[in-house]
Amino acid sequence: MGAIRRSELESVYGLLLTPYRASHAGPRTPRPWTRPLRRTAKAILAVARYGPGVVRHHSVGFGKQTRRLVQCLRDGFSVEDFYRYRLYRQPSDTLFVPSQFNYEIRSNLYRKLGIDPDLLADKRRFAKAAAEAQLPIAHTIADFSEGQVRWWAGNSLPTVDLFAKEAQAMCGQGAMSWRWNGSGWVDEESGATYDEARLLARLAQLSKQAPYIVQQRLSNHPELRDLSPVGLCTVRVVTVRSPSDDAPRILLCAFRIPKSGDIADNFARGGVACSIDPQTGALGIAVLKDLNLAHLDFECHPDTGAPITGRRLPYWDPVKSLALHAHRCFPQCPSVGWDIAITNAGPVLLEGNYNWDSVLAQQTGFALGATEWPSHLREWITE
After folding, report:
1. CATH for 219-381, options being 1.10.8.60, 3.40.50.300, 3.30.470.20, 3.30.300.20
2. How far apart are CA 78 and CA 314, in angstroms?
3. What does the pLDDT look like over 271-326, one tens digit per residue?
4. Model's pTM, two decimal places?
5. Which of 15, 42, 74, 329 is the most exposed place for a label (fewest CB within 10 A)?
């Protein structure tokens, strides 16, 4: 089964990536004979830097790491892929998907299908579309662009906790959070207190570089607050849909937990992530994205000490139902990575990601080549 799926995966690469790369390629040059030497040198340097922890915790020697890394570099994987997916422990015929390949595949698929990715990528457009579809989403108060504010409700900031983020960015970029203390808003990171005029002025100034969206801040369900007292934990549910079938399906699920004191859960900001059993909502072993620590497993949060592995998420069936319902409201999208918060009132939809993070998915244990992902892509390519 592995060999069949690997072959199918490679054929999908060819169908989508070959035309894309041909259209973006420069003048053809002879294949340099130094390429194998450069791969070997790159592998030696990487193993010297990241390999000692692997030797200690996984008993995989430097020589084996180097040989496997050279092979993986030749197959299109990066050094980051190698250590995050622990490819030093995998057979040569790995079913993991190189992160850059996956990004190119989905970007080119959207171009081929004529789908506008900004429907999901621009958080302002997504929030409006989700509200029109009557999905349970975070309440948007205003957005800021080029120094100007546009109110979505009322014409002033409500006296509640607030959260802001860049409207067109990824990985939690520009995330800010303020706690209402009865007389002003306290910045969760700096501790500075803002009145309305000062806070609006700050957001207007920031929006001259990038647009921002401001929403009412959500809080974790009481059963999850020991994991992260400040930042919001989120579920990532990736759903897929066939071109001939309006019924979406769940491909995989992962859970993200902020590092202690951080306001955003993003995996790239130092938070931990783990798999979720799609049937029960039980959490698996947690991992870190940092290459120096990617070889470690965590059953408890490395900062707070709160137990992770085996914990069952509240409202799990409603979380899955929300992700599937959301995809039915955006049927033009072949696949979407939904970010969902679990609050005391139930699940709340935060974002939909057309170019969802394959690193988050695969590092938490879902080798995409071993799922229906290759056959799903082929359906859309040949549709």
Report:
1. 3.30.470.20
2. 37
3. 899 999 999 999 999 999 999 999 999 999 998 899 999 999 999 999 999 999 99
4. 0.90
5. 74
